Amino acid sequence: MKIHHYTQPIPYIVVEDTYDDQQLKLIWQELQFYINNPAVFEENTGAAEDEDGTSRKRNSGFFLDGIYHRREVSNILTFNRWLYNGCLNLDHWYWRDFKPDTDYTLVSYYEEGDYYRPHCDKTMATAVTWLFREPKKFTGGDFLFPEFDISINVENNVTVVFPGLVQHAVTPIEMKKEDRGLGLGRYCISQFMNYDS
């Protein structure tokens, strides 16, 4: 893991090489299971909406917590515990005393034309991890903090951790016709972290 801390204009963290090769292999085995069973993916995952009720996103996904009641059954839910092991060294006023006691994990998939317009999460912090098959078969899908003019290029096996109330977005995906429908788009594992008590 290579961890980069940013404090201005907002506190956020970028983690490169989030998972090692063995972990990635097991995560991809799990993702392939879902790709082979597309019924688990839904259009409506409780996404942010405009005032008229229009969804701010176009993608598909599902909450892993709704499928697995025992975290250790899922490689993704097992490996994403790294956020709680103290490795981020969060020496910033926002993070210093942040010790969430609940989190939910959403797996999302973006393909041709998919996007997420600017929105906020109802969380103290959100962590998003991007994965895709290499070589990359799409363009776009970059991550934005639009109010602060910050753009982060989507890179494989990279995680961004940020306060959920900071507005964020995903730029539209473009893919060649022959690469569509094959699971070659942009995956995002989102962890929504809060205090339950």
Number of helices: 2
* Contiguous runs where pLDDT drops below 50 for at least 5 residues: none
The separation of the N and C termini measures: 31 Å
Instruction: Tell me the strand order in the biggest sheet.
Output: 1-2-11-7-14-5-4
What form results from the Cα inertia axes? globular
Structural class: mainly beta
Describe this structure in words.
It contains two helices and 14 strands. With 197 residues, the protein is mainly beta. A seven-stranded antiparallel β-sheet has the order 1-2-11-7-14-5-4, with no helix packed on it. The protein has a five-stranded antiparallel β-sheet with strand order 3-6-12-9-10, with no helix packed on it. A two-stranded antiparallel ribbon has the order 8-13. It is globular, with a radius of gyration of 16 Å. The relative contact order is 0.23.
Topology overview:
Blueprint: E1 2-6, E2 12-16, H1 21-35, E3 57-58, E4 60-63, H2 75-79, E5 102-110, E6 115-119, E7 125-131, E8 138-140, E9 143-145, E10 150-152, E11 158-162, E12 168-170, E13 173-175, E14 186-194
Keywords:
globular, 197 residues, five-stranded antiparallel sheet, mainly beta, seven-stranded antiparallel sheet
